[in-house]
Amino acid sequence: AQSVTQLDSQVPVFEEAPVELRCNYSSSVSVYLFWYVQYPNQGLQLLLKYLSGSTLVKGINGFEAEFNKSQTSFHLRKPSVHISDTAEYFCAVSWAGGTSYGKLTFGQGTILTVHP
Amino acid sequence: DVKVTQSSRYLVKRTGEKVFLECVQDMDHENMFWYRQDPGLGLRLIYFSYDVKMKEKGDIPEGYSVSREKKERFSLILESASTNQTSMYLCASSFPYRNYGYTFGSGTRLTVV
Lengths: 116, 113
Hints:
The complex is a heterodimer of chains A (116) and B (113).
Chain A: E1 4-6, E2 10-14, E3 19-21, E4 23-25, E5 31-38, E6 44-50, E7 56-58, E8 64-68, E9 73-78, E10 87-95, E11 105-106, E12 110-115
Parallel strand pairs in A: 2-12
Antiparallel strand pairs in A: 1-4, 3-9, 5-6, 5-10, 7-8, 8-9, 10-11, 10-12
Chain B: E1 4-6, E2 10-13, E3 19-25, E4 31-38, E5 42-51, E6 54-57, E7 64-70, E8 73-78, E9 87-94, E10 103-104, E11 108-112
Parallel strand pairs in B: 2-11
Antiparallel strand pairs in B: 1-3, 3-8, 4-5, 4-9, 5-6, 7-8, 9-10, 9-11
C-alpha cells in the first residue's frame, strides 16, 4: 500500500527562526501533493498543493514546499516563523490509478511549536 | 464561503448509547469522508462515500456505520459507544478528482464516559 511518512512528530523552534517539516511518500508514480494545517481545536485547512509545473510551490501564510521527484519528498518550509504558526501540519498524497476517487493518504502529522 | 458543517463541536455520551455525528456540505461534492484523529496516530479513515447511498469501509470501520441518504449529508453512527471511541472526529468532502483535495469541517470532540 502507498504510504506517507512525516519524519518528525514534533518540531520546536524559536520565533523568527526558519523551519522545515519533512514529508516523504512511497512511490514516484504520478502524484499530487498537499500540505494541510490544523490549529488547536479546529479542522484542517489547505496550506498549499503541488499539481504540476514548477517544483517550488508557494502557499498561504508565507509557507512554501518543494517537490523532489527523485527523492519522493515534499518538504514544507518557512523562512521566519511566528508564534501564530504553532499548529499541527499534515502532508497528504493523491496517487494515480485504480478507483481512488481522488482519495488522499495522510502522513501522521508534525506538531510545530514556536517559542518566543 | 464554502463549508463543511459538523453539527456538534463537543459531545459527551454514555457507554452503550447510540451516537449520531452529522456532517453537511454545501459544495455539491460527491465524496464525503469520516476520520478520527488521536494523538500520535494521525488521521485514520473510518468510512468514505462517493455517492448517495454508496459507501466504502476505511481503515478502522469496526464499531461504526454510516448513512448517506442525500448528497449533502453524511452521518457517522456509533452503534454502541465505548470509551475507546473517545476521540476527535473530522468530516471532509471533495470532488472525485485527484487534484482537488479535501475541505474539512471543524471537528467534533466526542467523549464517551
